[in-house]
Amino acid sequence: MNRISIFRILTILFAATIIIVACTKENSDVRLNPQLSTSQILDVKSDSATVIGFVIAAGDGFTEKGVCYSTDTLPTIENNKVIYTGEDKSATFSVTISGLNYVTKYHVRAYGTNASGTLYGEGFTFTTLPILPTVTTTAISDVTFTAATTGGNVTADGGADVTARGVCYSLISPPSIADSKTSDSVGLGEFVSELSGLLDDTTYYVRAYATNSAGTAYGEVLEFTTPEILITTRTWYVPGDYVAASYPGSTFLDWDPANSPFIQSLETSSDNLEGYIYMANATNQFKFATQPDWNGINYGDGGAGLLNATGENINLPSGYYKMNVDAASLTYTAVTTVWGVIGDATPGSWNTETPLTYEPASMTWKGGLHLTAASIKFRANQDWAYNYGSNDGNDTLQHDGANIPIAIEDDYFFVLDLSHPNAYTYTANRWGLIGSATPGGWDSDQNMTWDDVNQSLTITVDLIVGEIKFRANDAWDINLGGDINALEPGGANIAISEAGNYTIHLFLTNVPICTIVKN
Tell me, what DSSP letter sits at residue 257? Predict the structure, then answer.
């Protein structure tokens, strides 16, 4: 190769190098065209939303950037806008739009303004959430001892269906749907709410409520006070699964307040109820019902002797229970009792009672024993906390009442009736045999004695052909006759068809019967 050719080649290479260097320096001053993106919408509420923008390329920079929005498509800064005022440390920027209308569809896009004009990102849409409904509380009317009428009016649904409405009420203000409440249909408009099962002489707070997908709204709180019931006596019923088995032959039914045993107060102390309840099952469940149906307040187990209107059934083992309830403090006691006769006229004197036997069919305690001429009382559980005497000198009993005098030494048959709360009674009768077949004829009784082994009154006596009857206390007030397998008060004379020596037993513990056996 000659020198000229080499020189030409070197000249071309140098020129190419100059061009490449020149081009490289010129490109270092070039800026990408500015671009924006609307990348995300967050935290949409009923009146606000957060929009995220992203600067893809800033170009020579933006003098303002933010988000514009409208209910129309393709919003511009001529509509509504929120200017980003934060630091420009990253390409991402966030603004929060506020003051929006609920349940409204909005169009939004990011924007950026520079010397050349305003650029926009792609458009997004979102819909704001509903708000709580608007509800007012209706004035309270028709207030009775246990009921009242109120209601409300749902005037706006907040942009979503009203799925529940009614009134809530409580003894504490303000009430909420977590307290007692009524359910009165759905949707807009007026509604009426009936409150029942209220306590008398009690102040209640009440307000209407309405619920949609945004939550629950309340009307204004109103208050009212139920009038006081002037109770002479208060009666609570004791329904349960024990009733039918424990009261055979009665009209009582399981879990039927109107057909259940009950407890009752005195007029002088209406909050203090008491009564005796027999429970025959191995386990027995029950509640206290304040009305002879299930429409009133019904109390269950509140634990530790407390009653609770929402409590579970109370459980007790078998027994004959003395039940006491304090309706003011909502407390109760249930003590199983076994009753007997005590006193200086009895074999155990004042130290121990002679037991009686409970007979479910008649709901009474029965038994016999020999008494001397002295005095007696009825006592349970070897405990003077449970005793009855008689202040009036008749067959009525009172707690801690006076000793009952026994004037005549004889064998007596007792019937202790505690089945009527606060109206307890007893009978103590001497029984004898009378009639034309007896040694005394129709003029005098042949006294019967108590047979503890057979639990009967008995006599062994010579009889002739004729008739007999049983009578108490040497008088005709109480007498038995008729069918010996089912004796009746005032029943017909019983025929003795053959003379001889007879042993006769009179059984009074259940249905009165007798046996007449010729020896």
Answer: G
